[in-house]
Amino acid sequence: MTEIEIMMRFDSARAVVDVTGEYPDYPGHPLTLAWKIMTVFRSPGVALQTVKTNGLNCPEAVADNRISGGGDEVHRACHLFRLAQQRSSASELIAWADEKRIDGRAGGNLKAIQPRLAQAEKIKPLFEQKLVA
Question: How far apart are CA 57 and CA 42, in angstroms?
Answer without folding.
Answer: 21
